[in-house]
Amino acid sequence: MIETYNILSPSFEREAPRELMLLSIISQSFFQPFSLEDNLLVVLTALTSGSGVGFNRAMLFLKSDDRLRGEMWLGPRSAEEAGLIWEVLSTPGIGYVEILEHNRALVNKNADTLSARLRGLVYPANDPKALIPASVAGRKEILHVREAAQEPRVDRRFLNIIGVDEFLCVPLVAGDDVVGEIILDNAITRTPISPSDIKLAGICGLMAGNYIHSTTLHRRLLNMEKMAAMGEMAMFVTHQLRNPIVAIGGFTDQLLKPDLPEEKRVRNLNIIRDEIRRLEVIIYQMGHFLKVSLKEPVFFDPAPAIAEVLDSPQVQSRAKAYTLDAKVDACPPKILCDPTSFGEVLRNLIDNAFDATPPGGTISVRTYRRSPTAFALSVRDTGRGLTNPAKAHLFQPFFTTKDKGMGLGLPFIKRVMDTCGGSVEVLSRVGRGSVFKLQFISQERESTS
Asked: Which of 202, 220, 238 is the last residue of a domain?
């Protein structure tokens, strides 16, 4: 006998051991498209949920440069509000996303009181003589503070804000560094903090610290990739624009000479016009590729769009030097894509096939159904084919195998296919040609009978 279980529990199991519940709450967030701030809120939720550790309130400090700054405070402001919150959290069937939404609203609600007061606290992060709570950053140890009013090492400003005599300071450690701190208390129930509470809070601190560290590294990596892409784009733009601009400048200088013959004047004006058109194409293609977003994909009949591209004057004009062999389904299923982008994708693929194929070659366009929910379109050429290194870089912006190419057509195709949940596959052999296969999500047409 085989039994199956969902790896993600959709709701809280209130009878489960709180150690298991704590890890379950936090691990759920890794499967959600949450931001860093939301994932930290998940950790605070785990610490303050009655199904988790069960502290009444949690506040978060994060390290920025050499400062420890108050960022977020999750918890009720009174016993009455606590009763309402815990009633919501105990609703049968409530899930993780709903609880996160509830707690995000609670944090925003407290922005004028608890969280706002917390954000006014800023401490040096590496001062060995710092008062509590800042001293935790240097010690890298959990501090359990009792009878705080009688403890001279506790900052009076912090004590006035938190308003309790017992609290727990948990450093968020990542490697050899402290990236933040969580402070916990039981201001509503006045329940003493137990050794098991401290152990579970320590687990949360380790998970949160490593999550902050990995997210920070990921952001740095993305910034480095963006800077590298910007540098590559700057080099590309400089290379693409330099020749037309230099040509326009040189021939314009000649036009300013009063003794320039009429024949050369007309020649220069024609050259300047051609170079300006070249610049217009470059700017259009770059702007087209760098559009902020594509239109929302919808299900539509691709047959008219395919026919429009194949019958267009541009395609028919170029096809005179080739054999254009098109075999497409006259009544295909509906596919998921932006109709306008679909036409541009097909036009790009056919243009690339013409460019890659010597005159007299064959360009083949095919459509076929791979499954009841998958529809494919392919464009094959009999051109020079692609080397393996070239295939590995095909969809990178500004990479091109053409003498005058811009390297933006295939990245645009990839963006369109990613947006509509489809895929693009490339098969190629040097000297034998290439085939580009697009696969779309499809659905059968509604019956008219």
From this structure: 220
Tokens 């990178």 map to which residue?
396
Whole-prediction pTM: 0.49
Q: Are residues 155 and 213 in the same domain?
A: yes
Token representation of residue 390: 């070239």
Is 162 found in the same domain as 251?
A: no
Look at residue 1 and tell me if it is in a domain.
no
Q: Give 274's contacts (C-beta < 8 A, 6+ positions apart).
A: none
Residue (of 101, 77, 79, 73) closest to 89 by Cα position: 101
> 167 with 121, same domain?
yes
Task: Please count the structural domains in the chain.
Answer: 3
Q: Which of 196, 220, 244 is the last residue of a domain?
A: 220
pLDDT tens sequence across 84-99: 555 555 555 555 556 6
Burial of 6 (0-12, 13-18, 19+ CB in 10 A): exposed
Measure the CA–CA gap between 169 and 138, rounded to whole angstroms: 12
142's torsion region: left (phi>0), alpha (psi -120 to 50) or beta?
Answer: beta
**Inter-residue contact 69 to 158 (CB < 8 Å):** no
Task: Give backbone dihedrals phi and psi of 437, rounded to 5 degrees, phi first.
Answer: -110, 125
Q: What is the rounded end-to-end Cα distance, in angstroms, of the chain?
A: 46
CATH number of the domain that 107 lies in?
A: 3.30.450.40
Residues 279 and 351 placed together within one structural domain of the fold: no
341: Cβ–Cβ under 8 A, 6 or more apart, which residues?
294, 295, 416, 419
Q: What is the pLDDT of residues 383-400, one digit of tens each?
A: 888 887 777 777 776 767
For tokens 């083949």, what's the residue?
Answer: 364
Task: Identify the domain containing residue 191 by its residue range.
Answer: 18-220
Cα gap 255→356, rounded to integer Å:
38
Q: Low-confidence residues of the chain, pLDDT below 70? A: 1-36, 38-39, 49-53, 76-114, 128, 218, 222-237, 239-240, 285-294, 397, 399, 402-407, 446-449
**DSSP state at residue 111:** G
